[in-house]
Design goal:
The protein is an all-alpha fold. It has 16 helices and no strands.
Length: 458
Amino acid sequence: MSNLVVVAVLLALVAVAYQIGLARSRGVALASGMRMHSLPRYHGLLVVLNAALPAIAVYLLWSLFGGSVIEAMILASLPPEHLPADELQQKVVLQRIQNLASGFGLLGDAQAYEQTAAAYMQSLTTTGQAVTAALMATVAALGLFWSWRGTTPQTRARNRVERAMEVGLIACSAVAIFTTLGIVLSMLGETIRFFQFINPADFFFGTVWNPRFETVGTSGQEGFGLLPLLSGTLLIMIIAMLVAVPLGLMIAIYLAEYAPYRVRNVAKPAIEVLAGIPTVVYGVFALVTVGPFLAGMGELLGVNIRATSALTAGVVMGMMIIPFISSLSDDIITQVPKAMRDGSLALGGTKAETIIKVVLPAALPGIVGSILLGVSKAIGETMIVVMAAGNAPVLTANPFESVSTITVSIINQLTGDQDFASPQSLVGFALGLTLFAITLVLNIIALVVVRRYREQYE
């Protein structure tokens, strides 16, 4: 029973249930001669909820727990001499049996007990799918019957459907909240383990980043200082925003206030194309073109600018962020009521004065939001920094030197075959939690600014 077949059957069930609900409500209205409490479409949607949701719930339960139940039964059926005590080895045995049952094949010859277990797994899977399909059909039929019997002129179908929609919306909101909590808690647990090896003061205030992969207790436990990575992250972010914010705002103001209709229809999509370019392309552009160009400009000015530096990464990252700021700011500026512009112009203000003193302050909350999105992109960007910043974790404020960032170090520490019980790997979770905290603080600052100015202009 493939997922495609299940989806097709459920869609057919929804269509049939909706039509049954419509027909039943109209039939009851004609037979009783009374006015129905809810419109026919709400009765159709109520039948869909009563029939389709239980069937979907049965299928989800099978999808979530069916595999675990089958694996437990397979392990229980194995001969004791072939059942490993180690959990990891049990997973290996189950994977071999599953490959054999699905026809993928094995490395080497399959033993007799593996062939028997594979046949048993096929039988259990087939039986489980048949039972699941039967249960889905049963609960769907019961839902249809219940709805058919329960449809009366007094049935508050609209209230029940709206209540179900409200619960669904709350559930969708809860998914985002619980996802965030899950991410934070998963990082928090590993971060606490990391701080059992490394003093938090040495991590947050250390000025050397050199986490050598050595055994615990050796000199390799030195060099977990966050400040070099934090300074590199902030330095590149500041350079990127110095490039993106002025250019993005100027582009937005021109498109919203000055550009003719035809120019706007061509220029805005052309600028937004930049947002769709993969970041690795920006990285190659920085490495091949921008870096050598800035190094050459430094030679002409008598300044030593490395081709891979914070300046190179920041400039290219700013180019990448421009469409986010310009497009969002343009949308916000165009939403400012025309009456505010007309009032300023009627009082003798010029177009430039109207934009500076009326339009931009009124649009400030949205502009701050677009800038915050740009800051988040700059802090979380990895590929451009890997290719253009030089990956040198040193504590410096010189934009012409190579630096590294928190995101690059997370990748370096968690890539490859690592021992996730060592501080050299666990530090990646501490860096991730720190990055999350920085982003949270920026969001709080932005909310304070937005609320302050929004109250002033509402």
